[in-house]
Design a protein that fits this description.
This protein is of the alpha+beta class. The chain folds into 2 domains: about 1-70, no CATH class; about 80-170, no CATH class. It contains 7 helices and 5 strands.
Amino acid sequence: MVLEIESDELNEELFFPDEDFVVQGLALNKMNIEQIHDDVRANLEAYQQHWKLSVEKLGNCCYKDNIHAAAIKRVCFFDPEARPLIAHAMLEPTISIINYHLFQATYRSLVAWMFGDIVEFPQDPGVELYLSTKSSNTAPGGIAVGEGIKKHCAKRKQESKDRTSIEVVRF
């Protein structure tokens, strides 16, 4: 399920930056990423004032309390087994500032599509660029990489036209 939360209904003092956001900011010139993760996890309160920057640069933040029902505005129920290509598109491949920078429009459009706010499934912005530079490459078996991507995108777009197994509940 995907939840839409009205953040104005929550206590701002309980928002914290995503741990990965803080770690990536601290780890720019350091080697021991596991130690940095441990330190940030143990001292997340020291970074509390950066939660809005975490949302802006990574697309998410942490809320260290229960989210009360009044803050939930919509819920999208989704059966990933019935919609495997769309489920795959929803997976976050890499939690990184650069990944969010490149694909934030796609992620936001995907959520809008899930809730029925837009009718056409979003296309990854890098696909056309990738196809223009890689279409002559072939995968094992002689299949053109560009053709494989085009077919995948076409199947995903076709799957998105049918909203069966998706239910949106508004509160």
